[in-house]
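re: ur question from earlier - yeah i can do the single chain one, its not a big deal. heres the input i used so u can compare w yours
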Amino acid sequence: MLRPPGKWYPVGAGRFQAATASPQDGPGPSHRRRWLTAITLVIMLGGAAAGCGGPPPPRTAARLCGQAGWPQTPVEGGAYIVQNDEWNSTAAECITTDGHAQFTVASSAIREPASGDPGGYPSIYSGCSAGVCTAGNKMPIRVSRLKPGMITSSWVTTQPPDGAYDVAYDIWFNRAPATSGAPDGGELMIWLAHRGGSQIAPGGAPVAHVAIGGYAFTIWLWTSAAGQHRISYVMDHPVRSVRDFDVSGVAADAARRGYLSATSYLLNVQAGFEIWQGGRGLGTESFSLSVGP
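and the output i got, formated as C-alpha cells:
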C-alpha cells in the first residue's frame, strides 16, 4: 500500500508551556507536521518545570474534541500529555481522560476510506511534541545511544470489535536535538494491533521480518522523495497490552538496518489509535514510559 504519510503538526503562538500548565486547545485547524520555531526554548522550559519544587498539580478530568484545533491536557502530574489530533477529518470526535495516564474515545463519527489516510490519531505521549514538553522527560536522545532495554513502555488498551483503526506507538526523530521546522529524521510506528480489513495497513510495503523482545514483526517501509523514512513494525500476532515493551530495541533495530541515522535524535514517544472509521470505545486504560541510562 503506497500511501504517503499523514499526521501533521500545528503552528501558533502561545504554545510555549510545559506539561504542568492548564489544558490548552490548539491554535486552529493547522496541521501536525509543522513545529514551533522556538522548540529549543520549549525543551528548556520543560526541564525547568521538572525541577520546580512544590506539590504536583491536581489531576483534572477533561473532554477533548478534535475539531477544536489540537486540544490537549497534561495528565499524571504533567508526566504525560493526552492530545486529540483529528488532522484529516471534520467529523464529530471526542476523547475523555480522568487526569491519570489514560483516555477513552467517547464518541467518533470519523469515516475515512480504508485505502487512504486515517481521520485522526488521539494519543498520550512523553517528550516534546508540537512545541509542548512533558515534565521531567529525558528526550531528545541521540539514536547512537539507543540500546535494547533503555526505553521501555507498558500500555493497556481497550479495542472494540467494530470500526477500522490501528493501535500503535508513534515515535519521531530529527537530525538536530531541536528543530525550527518539520522533524526531518524519520518516523517510527509500532503497531500492536489493527482492525478493519486488509486495507488497514502502514504506508509503503513490507520489507523484512524480525523478532524483538519475544514479539514477531513485519517491517514496512515508506520513503519520501527527500529520502525520509516512515518505518512501521507491525506485530504478526495482535495484542491488547504490553508490559515493559522494549521501545528502544525496536528503534535500535531500525537504525541498524539504515532506516534511522545514528546522528539523529528521538524527540517523543506517543501511543494511540489511528482511526479510519468509528473508534468509539477505543481506550488507553493505563500507560507508562521509562527511560534508563
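Confidence is low (pLDDT under 50) at residues 1-5, 9-53. not sure if urs matches, ping me
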